[in-house]
Amino acid sequence: MKTYLDCLPCLLNQALRAGRIATADERKIKRLLDEVGRMLESIPLDSTPPESANLIYQKVKEITGNIDPYKELKIESTQKALTLYPSLKRQVEESKDKLLTAIRIAIAGNVIDFGVNKTFDIDKEIDEALKKDFGICHYNAFTKCLDEVNDVLFIGDNAGESVFDRILIEQMKKPTLYAVRGMPVINDATYEDAVQAGIDKVATIISSGTSAPGTILKTCNAEFKKVYKKSKFIISKGQGNYEGLSNEKRPIFFMLKAKCHVIANDIGVDEGDIVLKKASIL
Amino acid sequence: MKTYLDCLPCLLNQALRAGRIATADERKIKRLLDEVGRMLESIPLDSTPPESANLIYQKVKEITGNIDPYKELKIESTQKALTLYPSLKRQVEESKDKLLTAIRIAIAGNVIDFGVNKTFDIDKEIDEALKKDFGICHYNAFTKCLDEVNDVLFIGDNAGESVFDRILIEQMKKPTLYAVRGMPVINDATYEDAVQAGIDKVATIISSGTSAPGTILKTCNAEFKKVYKKSKFIISKGQGNYEGLSNEKRPIFFMLKAKCHVIANDIGVDEGDIVLKKASIL
User: Fold this and answer.
1) DSSP characters for A189-256?
2) Is B55 in the A-facing interface, judged by CB distances under 8 Å?
3) Rounded to whole angstroms, how far apart are CA atoms B154 and B204?
């Protein structure tokens, strides 16, 4: 997905929120906003938003000196999600279509996102995601493709959300590689976060190598790119991965909640919609 | 009111919205955002937000070549407000406290604001403003002061809103000077807008001389400053005038709807609250 003009004020807002989480020093935050303001003109609109966001969050680290501002929030998110795990498993077991319920739960987990300008109520979100209609739901294509493949590449998004992903991985019952970010950025899941979520018990965790809040292939490591190229079934969770991969000609299923109007418009759904969308080649 | 860090991304958002209203040329809007981004570092946090907004909206005019992008929207707002005038007058006449109802109506009109990042439904707003509790309501001080003075300085805010102000002016029954901006900025009322609203039939319209979307005294003309200094009863409508005058030691009553959380926090009310607040010296 390209960068829209609306993304530019959003990037400045993201810098402000991240700056406030990283430091209490208002002068540093002002300096951060000044520098991000100056950076805007070097952002080409044909780059993807996470590429630009990557530069912004590097600037947050550089100016505040805090290399992992969201660390505590990430640990808390995962702890909270783990307390929900038993009841979520029960809901899957008691449902008519267990796989679809697991998908709905994985999408509900996508609301744990500190990059987007919203607060969230995870219990309410789960309740809603279990009931509401999908904006787009390519579930038939999903089950058909899944039946035909031997393994899955699952590209994770946020810490905490990984617990919800685990439920879907358990339900798919296929050998799975679970890709995480190469280093901390916003509240995106890294290796440690995925282990805390128990992903290591159900999948093999690999690092994509990127420090961007989304899958920007040119910033990923060789191992990930190799796996990605040969994979026949890829799940891409969340907005950042969608933004990076939406134009790819690969067998990808995008799963997300459309949390901003720009992405909702790009996908062709309403803001707030839940989405299971196959890539154009499928 | 000082400029808060939150105002900086908001200024960039305002530039984007104004740019889109002024031109359909995306390259010009990108250039506008680039330039506004660069300007952020020169904005001192001890200046008031309308001072900074003034620079932004001048930049919108300069880059898009459109000196009055909101002209049509202003005319339409006033036309719409004029169709509501008879029923609003009736509501005042039928109410127990006519002056308080006229104040509520004047505040309802303050929702007609294209500078703030919200859409609005004027009929719903009127209905709400007639019923809801005030966040702050210094009505007793207002009536007491009004009884003691011979005339009123009424500092208007937006086009369309002036029709609602007219109802309050008619109800106060005091000779009134109605101040408007010196030139077009966002949808703020200028001389022509006030005349279209029929203010000339109930008050003397004067120009404050400013091109800022708020009353920044140092940018006002000598005539306005003279009137302002000797006035014993001043009504300041809306956020922009509040931002410019909130620290003034003058007999001012601020009337507004708190449409952004930064201003709501500064006043000490919740976002969305309606406010009738006396200045600190009263």
Assistant:
1) --HHHHHHTTGGGTSEEEE----SSS--GGGS-HHHHHHHHH-S-EEEEHHHHHHHHTT--S-EEEEE
2) no
3) 10
This model of the complex carries an ipTM of: 0.86
If one counts every other C-beta atom within 10 angstroms of the C-beta of residue A50, the result is 26
Tokens linked to A68 = 């992992």
pLDDT score recorded for residue B25: 97
Question: CB contact, 8 Å: B7 with chain A?
Answer: no
Element housing A102 (H / E): helix A98-109
Asked if pLDDT for residue B242 goes beyond 80, the answer is yes
What pLDDT was estimated at residue B123? 85
Residues in chain A with CB shorter than 8 Å from the CB of B13 are 9
- Are B164 and B108 spatial neighbours (Cβ–Cβ below 8 Å)? yes
A203 and A169 Cβ atoms separated by less than 8 Å: yes
This prediction has a pTM of 0.89
CATH superfamily of A76-278: Uncharacterised protein PF01937, DUF89, domain 3 (3.40.50.10880)
Q: Using a CB-CB distance cutoff of 8 angstroms, which residues of chain A are in contact with residue B41? A: 34-35, 37-38
CATH number attached to the domain at B72-278:
3.40.50.10880
Q: Does domain B7-64 have CATH number 1.10.10?
A: no
What pLDDT does residue B205 have?
Answer: 98
Across the interface, whether the CB atoms of B37 and A41 are under 8 A apart is answered: yes
Residue B238, phi then psi, degrees to nearest 5:
85, 175
Query: Would you call A55 an interface residue with chain B, using a CB distance cutoff of 8 Å?
Result: no
Q: Determine which of B8, B25, B118 to mutate to test the interface with A (most A C-beta atoms within 10 Å).
A: B8
Q: Give the span between the Cα atoms of A178 and A155, in whole angstroms.
A: 6
Decide if pLDDT at A36 tops 60.
yes
Beta-bridge mates of residue A22: none
Q: Is B41 on the interface with A (CB under 8 A)?
A: yes
Residues A112-157 have pLDDT tens digits of: 877 665 567 888 888 888 899 999 999 999 999 999 999 999 999 9
Type of residue at B237: K
A-interface mutation test, from B12, B42, B262, most A Cβ less than 10 A away: B12
Per domain, the residue ranges of chain A are 7-64, 76-278
At B182-217, the pLDDT tens digits run: 999 999 999 999 999 999 999 999 999 999 999 999
